[in-house]
Amino acid sequence: MAKKVALLQGNEVCAHAAVYAGAQFFGGYPITPSTEVAEVLSVELPKVGGKFIQMEDEIAAMASVIGASLTGAKSITATSGPGVSLKQELIGYACIAEIPCVIVNVMRGGPSTGMPTGPGQSDVQQARWGTHGDHAAIALAPSSCQEIFSETVRAFNLAEKYRMPVQVLYDEIVGHMRERIEFPEPGELEVIDRAKPTVAPEQYKPYDTSFGDVPPLAAFGSEYRFHVTGLNKAQDGFPTTKAELVDDEQRRQIRKVENETARADIEKNEEYLTEDAEIIVFAYGSIARSARYAVNELRKEGIKAGLFRPITLWPFPEKRVAALAKQAKAIVVAEMNLGQMVHEVERVSKGACTIAGVFRVDGEPINPGQIMDKVKEVR
Amino acid sequence: MAYDYEKSIRPGKLPHIWCPGCGHGIAMKGLIRAMDTCGLDKNNTAIVSGIGCASRLPGYMDYCTLHTAHGRAAAFATGVKMAKPEMNVIVMGGDGDGTAIGGNHFIHACRRNIDMTYVIFNNFIYGMTGGQFSPCTPTGDKASTTPYGNPDPIFDISKLAIGAGATFVARTTAFHATQIDKLIAEGIKHKGMSVIEVLDDCPTTYGRRNKFRSVVDMMKRLKEIAVPVAAASKMTAEQLEGKVLTGVLYKEDKPEYCEQYAKVIAKAQGRAV
User: Fold this and answer.
1) What ipTM was assigned to the predicted interfaces of this complex?
2) Segments in chain B below pLDDT 70
3) Residue contact B68–A227, C-beta within 8 A
């Protein structure tokens, strides 16, 4: 049987992917350019018995998502940069309390209200660091409508598997672009559910590291009763200020994402013509499409260019970028901000090659010609 | 036989953090009796709080407990209740938590008439941070940030709840200890958003600054200002000056939010509503 296909906008695809991944709850607040995610989920979620609620503000939306997830429901919210700024408080809560959830950020310009209808990629560092305190971060950056489907499903999987908030970051161009999309059949994409406790209720501890760095999470309303807090806590979930317990928990919550096995599981990149490339173009989201075009044109001119496209932005693909920096003469980072991921590229390259940037914040996409010019300049 | 509170309390979690003379313990005992009276299943009941002295209560209680961020309890609780409407949801916290930083969440939870019971321990002050004025600190009173007397007018929490759409609103005080559980129990049984305001005392950060010589004086004050609604109807405006009404202040049957959403699901699935 032929697969179901449709011509859909990125934001619409995201909503359908959430349902595919098993989402049962959406809590949101209207904000351009992400609103279609909410609109489609208000139609689709009740069809599958799920719940949609429009909350009174962005913070409340994030709170409702965490509360719903605690009952065992896969939960999602969608917003844009200003909304994430407000949600930062409770993104930190989801980090420390280790509650799985998905946050979609359809990026526009900024800071503040910025350019609500224009595209931007200036939230990529916000996705990494946006909340106070030390914490791990997972952020995925699809660059096509089909990829929004697969990466939204993967975001739910990673949230459930690593018990934490996961951000899906795409710019307004990808969010509002319409492309042909093939709906995966049920079972075609892997769908992961959080690990449930196997111990007797009286033995359950919500942060029990004898089950590894990602302890199983019970649901409210099941036979397990437990306490959840945003305070530093011991493995039993109750607050503590004991130095060694606080230190253990904080380090574990970062280690669970940044250990080598987890990184290999979470990191995902696309490489195009990088094997023999002398110049690497580093680009993500919609700009990776311009970059790919630029690489093809440069190759026609005999310039050995290649594209490195991180699909997982966080954790940053440190090893691979370091290796490419040793192989290449230069890495050209193209992003719709004034230089954010370029700092990571510089950090991991350790001076092994020239790093240059093509930056744009005027609400227009970076076009292939701009990237080609920069490549020729640093060649 | 003495009432057994321990069956509701997590083993090993007491003593609590509250100061000697704090009214929160009295309010907590009222909450325990109410939840017990209503026969709430511990596994199927969530207690959700924000941040502050009062908000430490869930940690002591042997239920599904969620100590959230400052002011956000009602919003977290809305997510819990929407996702699992069969759960009983108790929200609780202090006056600053619920009506200042959490004011928006509070009024919108009332507006939705979602089936939760919100118990506010109103001690007129931010106690945990050392006694700054809250939206409920009486005008003219001293707090650590109103050294010349509080210039702010106050929120009347119960009126706020009624105005915002809560369908059961009641008020009592820590002095009227035996009324606390009765009102909370009535709120739990009520289908929809119920708000129970319990006026209590903070001797450490409010009483000392406002010429209360002892906790007993603070309790006497709560006794003096409280007027049952029935008695108030026979009193003049002058007699009611400086008093607060206690008892069930408002009760109404209105469609409950999760039930309304169940109809949305039925419509989306093409079933008869």
Assistant:
1) 0.97
2) 1
3) no
